[in-house]
Design a protein that fits this description.
With 68 residues, the chain is an all-alpha fold. It has one domain. The protein has three helices and no strands.
Length: 68
């Protein structure tokens, strides 16, 4: 792929395609990142709630309350 480009700058159509492709993959990566962040938050929240449900002693033991 690089040899073709170095010879004659690559044919324009191919270049456009590659740009579009890189943009779409970047968008996809961003979406994946956002999804991961959301999941992480959700999991943390669920863990906190589970600890709360179990009782104040356990909740305290994990250092959520102490941390302020």
């Amino acid at each position: 792929m690089q040899s073709k480009r170095s010879k004659k700058g690559g044919d324009p159509l191919h270049r456009v395609e590659s740009i579009c492709f890189s943009q779409s993959t970047r968008q996809f990566d961003q979406n994946q990142q956002q999804r991961k962040e959301k999941l992480k938050k959700k999991r943390k929240h669920q863990r906190k709630r589970a600890l709360l449900r179990r009782g104040p002693s356990n909740y305290n033991r994990y250092g959520f309350v102490c941390r302020t």
